[in-house]
Structure formats: structure tokens, C-alpha cells
Write a structure and sequence with these properties.
about 1100 residues; Amino acid/polyamine transporter I; Rossmann fold; 3 domains; 40 helices; about 55% helix; about 5% strand; elongated; sodium; chloride; glycoprotein
Length: about 1100
């Protein structure tokens, strides 16, 4: 099938051959005009419609003429619905074309509801048909009704779903949401324009001069602008909920960083309330002092006025976000009027009094004189910068109420960046204007004028007729350097500047009073700090954090009453800067991780710029106050350690996870370039556990020598009908890997579905692992029931050992006396748990039913019982459990469970007996050595047993001791066994013969024809010729068991060389008999055979 992109294809009205899957662009109401314009306009590519060519009247055109219709279509987010009376397959009416697809299909079209989170409050999450449902054959008894098929075809859900179950009631319906102006722009401008604008900016210009003053403002703006860009990028990379800076950082860097910074950020906002309120109270007290109206004294008056102010602000906040927003708008208007009042005052001609205080309107000489710095003693560029920088903060005021914004992804970038731009322009304009109008020092004495004949010292004031030369030798009360009320003096109406100061302090306090509880509530909702979950509850349609408001109020009141904010202020500034640094680092980290999920809609950012912003923020922290920066880092570090230790059960898809993946991938690729070396050998095991929880002993002993040193993959083979196996396998993958993590077992889980067990294991042996991290050792359990198992099972079991050797993979077989497989015990426990859950669910349903009204309650009971799958099978299960309980198997099951955990327990003082009978490259020796390094096995000593000649025992003992010392392996004793090859005693041999008797063919006792027939019918049996040929080897296995019983019966663990059966020579039954007699009546045994490549070396 080819596609032609020329316009003729898309505008051709009627092809010669009708085709349902034809894409036409036809607007029924403008067909003629569309055809006429086709020669001039480029082709418009439309949404594909699957329609019958004979009926092409109804089309959706996205041409410019119908753009409004298209926009409405997008805004509604709904596809066209078919008429209920219309048959789904009826393709001969116009209604048919209102469907996305004109035929029944389980496939759903793309829809936002499929991508929502489960707890989304913006809409109900819907589940699209699974791949299994659309891929498998449709069941014959499933009737697809026209209505349901149409709903599925249009992406409305699965057939038969009740709409009522999919629609969630929004608990916060009718909540007040703010746009980008009122929600972000207003708040950020109010927070950035603080008291600094009115009472300290003039002093900064006086100290640093206009040139360096502008540089200080621009440097501060650069830090906040970079942070604003990073904030915008993170905020537009997905749906943003409430929590502001905490939410952005935690969802980007994970709960460890988010949880640590979220707590100190919320605390900083709470204390900031006290700082701003005290600033307001100090201004009020100064006014009272001027009119001699002090109530008690200055300190207590500040406390009284501050407390009253906080109570009023709390009332506004608790009244609701709508009232708080109105108050913010009023305060902004007052603030803007105050700023405009200042600029108007600069052009009003100055009078004698103002001139004596240093104000001469705009003068080039004053501008030139004030352009350079004139730092007083103890001041410098960085000290002045440290004083100004807090005035540039406040850019997160809008982001902090992200949960109350109508469209956070649009509002946060637009409002934040515009607020930074406007406030920066205002700061620059005020700094330049005040530097061009007011001299640095003035006496305030109207008589200090220049008299004719006096020498002028060349200052700007001198040139303008005033002599302020005595300010060089003594402190003067006026001028940029000395008077903090310069803006009031310059302004057209001084009380408006005071109102501006009130507005700046109160608005910042109000913003912080709202931000702290909102951020704290989001932190508590995530339950990172378990003890703080009490504050997660919200009230009202806006989910107001009333408990958080009360806590913030208490903290603010405490610091107002302490009234020692000069010490706490630098720490709070550093808390905010730490938040900025982490936001910048979050943006850099997310970009650096190169995750496909990092797709910010706001593209005006750069990862390296964000990194430089993070570094700048950290540097500014030390510039402002080094000890406060150290305290901030220490607090954040301890909180980070705490959250990391607690490991909150959350998964937010952070960039930390993405970078971990990238690092692991890079390291794995880099590892492929490194050649294997014997010094770096480590056991990398594929463990045939089945479900990891079903054979805990096998997993525990393997984990003991692979933990923190080698790869461990728990493998399971699903045998049976492919359809059922694949479904069961897919459903259990995540659950079993989670079990490994929960039990702190450092292993992976892998599973395959196969026609037989051996095929599955063969696939795992070949395909498991990645690059150099591939298994080199297979660990399996001993098949204790081999004598009762069908011959095919034995063939598969022995076959996987042969397969492992074929792939040059070592083999370890684990045998313990009992408790190896506890799958039946787990099944009984699972059934009991299900019954208990169903009982509790039924009780809860009945309890809920009792609270409902009349017949509605009865109907609800049946509905809920149906959802809980409470069926008639429950009594049957109960009967089964009672039968099991009546057999008194509880004690037996308990013993099995205890035996299965024997390798989890600390092994007491004892020995690990290593029977290194055959040189397999050293794996038989390396495994027990690694075990002795583990905490649970460190008290066990190694005893080495090797075969030798009876007349050279001492020489061979010395040689083995020398070899072990070169390998640097500590041992307690070495035993040379010289009598391995003698015949076993008669009782032992008789036991072996009786064990294999049911599996012997005895062909020598039968005629040739009968013998050949028996060989064909039972090829798996042991022939007389085979038994005779390998009689010496059989003797050896029986004799070895006698020696093991004699020397190692009391050992904690026996590690023994695994005998190898030559393929197509030794039958599977005989090999299993060897393994059985070799390990019979012994402590836990590991039968080990390496791949005959060196895993030990004595070279450095």
C-alpha cells in the first residue's frame, strides 16, 4: 500500500474503485469553494476517516474557514456519538459517519481518560481494552450490542461497563481556581516588591553606586530568572498539583530531596510570616513614636501589633482563597500607586527643605557622582549584594498555590517570568532615578548654602549651591547613605510611601501564610513523614489546610513574641535559596537523564544554564551568611538521610530513577569492553526456584554467596497451555520481584513459558543476563521424588544438567532433609487469607447496608457483594480448609517452614566440609570460602577433604596446604582420603541394589527378542550391561557416602564435587541413583561442578 502526498489524492472526489478506507477532504457546505481554492492553497492534511465512498457527504474539515468548529471540537474533548436507534453496522446513513470507526471493534481511540492517575480529581480514570482482550479470540458467548460497541469504538470504555462506576464525583467541585494574573503574577510581584524597595534600595545605590547597584540587581535577577526558567520547564512537564516547590522537586528528584527540602521550605514560609509582620509592626511603631503614642515600649508594642496583625491575616486566609486573592489585589494597587507616587515626586521641583536633605531633581552631575561606588567601612560589593538579594526572592509565590490554579502549566511560566521582568524593571528604574536625584550625604540644614567667594569642593551639591563638606568628617542624617526614608522625601505624597511599605509587608506576610500550609499539606499527603499525616486533611471546596493554617499561625506567633529575627533571618533566606538551587538542579538532572518522559512544553531553558543557576544559588547562600548556609546544608542532609532510611513507598518516576537506568546501561555497555579475568570472577547464578517464595532455602543459600558480589536470577518455568501460562506469568512478574525487594534479597526474577520444563530452562540458560552480567552457574534443588516421578520428568531434570554443561555453565545441586518446597503450605495460607478478606469485606458490606435507607440498602448490598466476588464457592473453600485443619497438619507445616528458613539463621560454631574430589577450576572451593565471609557463616571453619594415595598422604597434604595458602584461603584442617576406591560394605551396596531394582531391565535373563522389545518400550531403564560397565563408579558413590557419614555427619554444610554423567552413555535413572546414594542421610549438601575454567589464581 503506497501513499501519495499530492493534493490531487486528497481532493479527488470519486475514485474509480469504491474503497471504505479512502481519505477525502470535503466540506459539504463549502464544496465548491474548496475545489476552487485547491489550486492556490497548499493541501490540508486531515484526520483519517474510514467511510464508504458511495456516501461521502458528511466530513469534518479542518480548513481555516471551519477553524472555530475545530477548536470547539478540541475543547469539548468528545467524539461524536451515534444515534441510539441506529444499528452499528448500518453504513448507509449519515449517522454512521458520526462514529470514529464505522464498524465494531474492541480498540479504543486515544482519549485523555486513559492516561489519568487513579486518584485524579480532574476526571475519572478509564481502562482501555488490554492487549490480551483485543488479541485473543473473542468468546462465542460474548454478545456485543450496538450501543456498547459504539461506545468502545469511540473510546468511551469497555462493553458492559456502567457509566456510573467510571464517573467519580469531584469532592472539590465548585472550587475557586485562579488564572495566571491573579494566581501567579499578582502574588509574585507583591512578594518580590518588599520593604527593600522603599527603605533600603536608596542605601544600596549610595554604597555601590548606580553602576554596581544595577549590576547587583541584574545579578540577583539572573539567579531568579534562571530559577524561573527551571520552574517553568518542570511545571510544564506534566500535570502540576498542589505543593509548589515541594511538588516540583519531589516529582523530579524523588522523595528524598523533595521530602527534605519540602519540610524546611514550609518552615521557612511560616517564619517568613513573622519576619514580614514584624517589619510592618516596626513601621507602625515608628509612626507611633513620632506622635508620642507608644503603648508600652517599642519591643512590646511590636509584639502587640504583630500579634493582632497575624490574627487578622489568619482570618483572611481561613475565610478562603477567594478573599485572600481579593486582599492581594487591593494591596497590589496600593503598592503600584506608591511606586508611581515616587516617580511623580522625582519631577516635582524640589524646595529648599528637600534640597538641604540632598534632593535636587534629575541632575547629570549627581548621576555622574553617584555612578561609581563609595563603600563605607565594613561594606563591600558582596555584603551589599547579600543585603539586596532577599528582595529579589519570592518568585515561587505563585507556584506554591499550584493546586489552586486553573491551569498551572500555563499560569506558572507566564506569571512568574512576567513578574520577574516587571519587578526588575521597577527596581532598575527606582535605583537609577534615586541615584540621579539625591546626593550621598546631606546635612538637612537649609543654611548650608554656598556663599559667594567660598571655595567649592567640586561635589555635585556644591555645584548646585549647597555645601555638605562637613559630612566628610562627621555623620550626616540625610542623603542616600544615611537616610532610609529617601523615597518618602522624594515622593509627591509621603504617606503613600508608608502605605506602600504596609502593602509590601502585609502582602508578603499573607502570601507566606498561604504558601506554608499549602506546601506542608502536600508534603503530609504524600505521607513521607508518617507522624505528620494529621495535617494532610483539607476542608471545604478548596480543600483548605485549616490544620496547617493553625500550625503556621503558632510558629509565626512564637517568632513574633521572641522578636529576635536578626539571627533567624539569614537562615530563612538560605532555606529559600536551597529550594531555588534544588529546582535548578532538578531541571538539569531531568535533562541530563535523557528520559523520554522529560518533555517540557516550555522550551526556553538549557540544562547547563540550570546547573549554573544551582551553583549560583549555593554560592549566594555563602555570600549572604556562611554559617547559615552550613546550618541549612546540615539540616537538609539529616532530613535526606532520614527519608532515605525510611524508604517511603512512592514511585513518581523521578529523574533519579532515569539517571540510575542510564548509568546502569552505560556501565553495562562499558563492561562488555572489558575482558574477563580470573581475579574478577564471581558466581553469577541462575537459580531454578520457581516462585521465589516457594523454595526459600534454595534462594537463601544462593543469596549467601552472591549478595553484593554476584548476579542472582530467580527463574521460573511455566509449563502447560501457552495462553494460560503467559497470562499467569505476566500477572505474577511484578508481584514476585516485589517479594524479593520486600525480603531484601538482591536478586532478579525471570520467567518463561515453555512446552516442557527442559525447553524453558534451556531458554533461560541461553538468554538470561546482559552483556558480561550473564550467569555462569546454575543452582537447582535435588529432585527427592525422582523414584515416584514419571520417566519424562527425570529425563528433563538430568537433561538440564547436560544442557548447562553444554553451555559451559557450572552446576550446583542443593539437598536438604526437609522444607525445600513449601508451595503447598503457602497455598493453604493464601486460601485462609482470602477467606478472611472475604469475611471482612462481607461484614463491611453488611455494615454499610445497615446505614442505607429502605430497599435502596438491599439493592446496594447485592451490588457490592457482586463487586467483592462473593460467590457460592465460599462454603466449598471453607469445607476444604476445615478438612485440612482436621488432619492436624498445622504442626507439620510449621516444621517445614522452620526447616525452609535454616539458611536465614546465624550458623553457630561448626565446619563447612569441602570434599574437593575433582578439579573443576576451583568453584567447589570458592563457594564455601565466600560463605565464610558472610556474617551468618563467619564462625564456620573450612575442612578440606581430597582424594590421595594411601602411601603419599603426608606429601599430598603438604602439597594441598601449599596450594591453599597460595590461593590465600584459610582452612582449619586438611584430610587426605586414601581409601576411596575400596569396595563399600555389603549393607550399603545392598541398599543401592534394592534402590535401583525397580528400574533395572534384566535383559540378560530374557531371550533376545523379549530383551529388544523391553529396550524399545522402556528405554529409560538400567540395562545389565550398563550396570556392569559402570560398576566401579557405582562402588565409588556408595563408598563416598560411607566416608561422608564417617567424617562429615556433624558438619553445618557439606560441599561436594558433583559427578558428571557422560551423555548417551549413563542412563538418567542410574545417574539419579548415584546422586541419591551419594547425599543420603547427610547435613545440607551442595553438589558443585564448575565449568572447568579457572576461578582461582595465586598470581597478583
Amino acid at each position: 500500500m503506497s501513499m501519495n502526498n499530492s493534493s490531487s489524492v486528497f481532493l479527488d472526489a470519486a475514485p474509480s474503485h469504491p474503497n471504505r478506507f479512502q481519505v477525502n477532504v470535503i466540506n459539504e457546505s463549502h464544496e465548491s469553494s474548496a475545489a476552487a481554492d485547491s489550486n492556490h492553497d497548499p493541501p490540508h492534511y486531515e484526520e483519517t476517516s474510514f467511510v464508504d465512498e458511495a456516501h461521502n457527504r458528511l466530513r469534518i474539515s479542518f480548513r481555516p474557514g471551519n477553524q472555530e468548529l475545530y477548536d470547539n471540537f478540541l475543547q469539548s474533548g468528545e467524539t461524536a456519538k451515534t444515534d441510539a436507534s441506529f444499528h452499528t453496522y448500518d453504513s448507509h446513513t449519515n449517522t454512521y459517519y458520526l462514529q470514529t470507526f464505522g464498524h465494531n471493534t474492541m480498540d479504543a481511540v486515544p482519549k485523555i481518560d486513559y492516561y489519568r492517575n487513579t486518584g485524579s480529581i480532574s476526571g475519572a480514570k478509564m481502562n482501555r481494552p488490554s492487549l490480551y482482550e483485543i488479541h485473543e479470540q473473542l468468546a462465542k458467548n460474548v454478545a456485543v450490542t450496538p450501543g456498547s460497541a459504539d461506545r468502545v469504538a469511540n473510546g468511551d470504555g469497555m462493553p458492559g461497563e456502567e457509566q456510573s462506576e467510571n464517573k467519580e464525583e469531584d469532592p472539590h467541585a465548585g472550587a475557586v481556581k485562579f488564572g495566571w494574573v491573579k494566581g501567579v503574577l499578582v502574588r509574585c510581584m507583591l512578594n518580590i516588591w518588599g520593604v527593600m524597595l522603599f527603605i533600603r534600595l536608596s542605601w544600596i545605590v549610595g554604597e555601590a553606586g548606580i553602576g554596581l547597584g544595577v549590576l547587583i540587581i541584574l545579578l540577583s535577577t539572573m539567579v531568579t530568572s534562571i530559577t524561573g526558567l527551571s520552574t517553568s520547564a518542570i511545571a510544564t512537564n506534566g500535570f502540576v498539583r498542589g505543593g509548589g516547590a515541594y511538588y516540583l522537586i519531589s516529582r523530579s528528584l524523588g522523595p528524598e530531596f523533595g521530602g527534605s527540602i519540602g519540610l524546611i521550605f514550609a518552615f521557612a514560609n511560616a517564619v517568613a510570616v513573622a519576619m514580614y509582620v514584624v517589619g510592618f509592626a516596626e513601621t507602625v511603631v515608628d509612626l507611633l513614636a513620632e506622635s508620642n503614642s507608644i503603648m508600652v515600649d517599642k519591643s512590646n508594642d511590636i509584639r502587640i501589633i504583630g500579634s493582632i496583625t497575624v490574627v487578622i491575616l489568619l482570618g483572611i486566609s481561613v475565610a478562603g482563597m477567594e478573599w485572600e486573592a481579593k486582599a492581594q489585589v487591593i494591596l497590589l494597587i496600593i503598592l503600584l500607586i506608591a511606586i508611581v507616587n515616587f516617580f511623580i515626586g522625582t519631577v516635582i521641583p524640589s524646595n529648599q527643605e528637600k534640597k538641604s536633605r540632598g534632593f535636587f531633581n534629575y541632575q547629570a552631575s549627581i548621576f555622574a557622582e553617584n555612578f561609581g561606588p563609595s563603600f563605607t567601612k565594613g561594606e563591600g560589593f558582596f555584603s551589599v549584594f547579600a543585603i539586596f538579594f532577599p528582595a529579589a526572592t519570592g518568585i515561587l509565590a505563585g507556584a506554591n498555590i499550584s493546586g489552586d490554579l486553573e491551569d498551572p502549566q500555563d499560569a506558572i511560566p507566564r506569571g512568574t517570568m512576567l513578574a520577574i521582568f516587571v519587578t526588575t524593571i521597577a527596581y532598575l528604574a527606582v535605583a537609577i532615578c534615586v541615584g540621579a536625584c539625591v546626593v550621598r550625604d546631606a546635612t538637612g540644614n537649609v543654611n548650608d548654602t554656598i556663599i559667594s567667594g567660598m571655595n567649592c569642593n567640586g561635589s555635585a551639591a556644591c555645584g548646585l549651591g549647597y555645601d555638605f563638606s562637613r559630612c566628610l568628617n562627621q555623620n550626616c542624617p540625610y542623603g542616600l547613605m544615611n537616610n532610609f526614608q529617601v523615597m518618602s522625601m522624594v515622593s509627591g505624597f509621603a504617606p503613600l510611601i508608608t502605605a506602600g511599605i504596609f502593602s509590601a509587608t502585609l502582602s508578603s506576610a499573607l502570601a507566606s501564610l498561604v504558601s506554608a500550609p499549602k506546601v506542608f499539606q502536600a508534603l503530609c499527603k504524600d505521607n513521607i513523614y508518617k507522624g505528620l499525616h494529621f495535617f494532610a486533611k483539607g476542608y471545604g471546596k478548596n480543600n483548605e489546610p485549616l490544620r496547617g493554617y493553625i500550625l503556621t499561625f503558632i510558629i509565626a506567633m512564637a517568632f513574633i513574641l521572641i522578636a529576635e529575627l536578626n539571627i533567624i533571618a539569614p537562615i530563612i533566606s538560605n532555606f529559600f535559596l536551597a529550594s531555588y538551587a534544588l529546582i535548578n538542579f532538578s531541571c538539569f538532572h531531568a535533562s541530563y537523564a535523557k528520559s523520554p518522559g522529560w518533555r517540557p512544553a516550555y522550551g526556553v531553558y538549557n540544562m547547563w544554564v540550570s546547573l549554573s543557576g544551582a551553583i549560583l544559588c549555593c554560592a549566594v547562600m555563602f555570600v549572604i551568611n556562611w554559617w547559615a548556609a552550613v546550618i541549612t546544608y546540615v539540616i537538609e542532609f539529616f532530613l535526606y538521610i532520614y527519608v532515605t532510611y525510611k524508604k517511603p513507598d512512592v514511585n513518581w518516576g523521578s529523574s533519579t530513577q532515569a539517571l540510575s537506568y542510564v548509568s546502569a546501561l552505560d556501565n553495562a555497555l562499558e563492561l562488555t569492553t572489558v575482558e574477563d579475568h580470573v581475579k574478577n570472577f564471581r558466581p553469577q547464578c541462575i537459580v531454578l526456584t520457581g516462585g521465589p517464595m516457594t523454595r526459600p532455602a534454595l534462594l537463601d543459600i544462593t543469596h549467601a554467596f552472591t549478595k553484593n558480589s554476584g548476579l542472582c536470577i530467580c527463574c521460573e518455568v511455566y509449563v502447560g497451555p501457552r495462553k494460560e501460562c503467559v497470562k499467569e506469568m505476566n500477572n505474577g512478574m511484578a508481584k514476585k520481584q516485589e517479594w524479593l525487594l520486600k525480603n531484601k534479597i538482591k536478586a532478579f526474577y525471570a520467567a518463561v513459558a515453555a512446552d516442557c520444563f527442559r525447553d524453558g530452562v534451556r531458554s533461560l540458560l541461553q538468554a538470561s543476563g546482559l552483556g558480561r552480567m550473564k550467569p555462569n552457574t546454575m543452582v537447582i534443588g535435588f529432585k527427592k521424588n525422582w523414584r515416584k516421578a514419571p520417566p519424562a520428568e527425570i529425563e528433563n531434570y538430568v537433561g538440564i544438567i547436560h544442557d548447562a554443561f553444554d553451555f559451559e555453565i557450572g552446576v550446583i545441586i542443593v539437598r536438604i532433609s526437609q522444607g525445600f518446597d513449601i508451595s503447598q503450605v503457602l497455598q493453604v495460607q493464601e486460601e485462609l487469607e482470602k477467606l478472611e478478606q472475604e469475611r471482612l469485606a462481607l461484614e463491611a458490606t453488611i455494615k454499610d447496608n445497615e446505614s442505607e435507607e429502605g430497599s435502596r440498602g438491599i439493592r446496594g448490598l447485592f451490588k457490592k457483594a457482586g463487586k467483592l466476588n462473593i460467590t457460592k464457592q465460599v462454603p466449598k473453600k471453607d469445607t476444604g480448609i476445615n478438612t485440612i485443619q482436621s488432619m492436624h497438619v498445622g504442626e507439620f507445616n510449621q516444621r517445614l517452614v522452620e526447616a525452609s528458613t535454616q539458611f536465614k539463621k546465624k550458623q553457630g560454631k561448626g565446619t563447612i566440609d569441602v570434599w574437593w574430589l575433582f578439579d573443576d577450576g576451583g568453584l567447589t572451593l570458592l563457594i564455601p570460602y565466600i560463605l565464610t565471609l558472610r556474617k551468618k557463616w563467619k564462625d564456620c571453619k573450612l575442612r578440606i577433604y581430597v582424594g590421595g594415595k594411601i602411601n603419599r598422604i603426608e606429601e599430598e597434604k603438604i602439597a594441598m596446604a601449599s596450594l591453599l595458602s597460595k590461593f590465600r584461603i584459610k582452612f582449619a584442617d586438611i584430610h587426605i582420603i586414601g581409601d576411596i576406591n575400596i569396595k563399600p560394605n555389603k549393607e550399603s551396596w545392598k541398599f543401592f541394589e534394592e534402590m535401583i531394582e525397580p528400574y533395572r531391565l534384566h535383559e540378560s535373563c530374557k531371550d533376545l527378542t523379549t530383551a529388544e522389545k523391553l529396550k524399545r518400550e522402556t528405554p529409560w531403564k538400567i540395562t545389565d550391561s550398563e550396570l556392569e560397565a559402570f560398576k566401579e563408579k557405582s562402588y565409588r558413590q556408595v563408598r563416598l557416602n560411607e566416608l561422608l557419614q564417617e567424617h562429615s555427619r556433624a558438619a553445618n554444610l557439606v560441599v561436594l564435587s558433583l559427578p558428571v554423567a557422560r551423555k548417551a552413555t549413563i542412563s538418567d535413572i542410574l545417574y539419579m541413583a548415584w546422586l541419591e546414594i551419594l547425599t543420603k542421610n547427610l547435613p545440607p549438601v551442595l553438589l558443585v561442578r564448575g565449568n572447568h575454567k579457572n576461578v582461582l589464581t595465586f598470581y597478583s
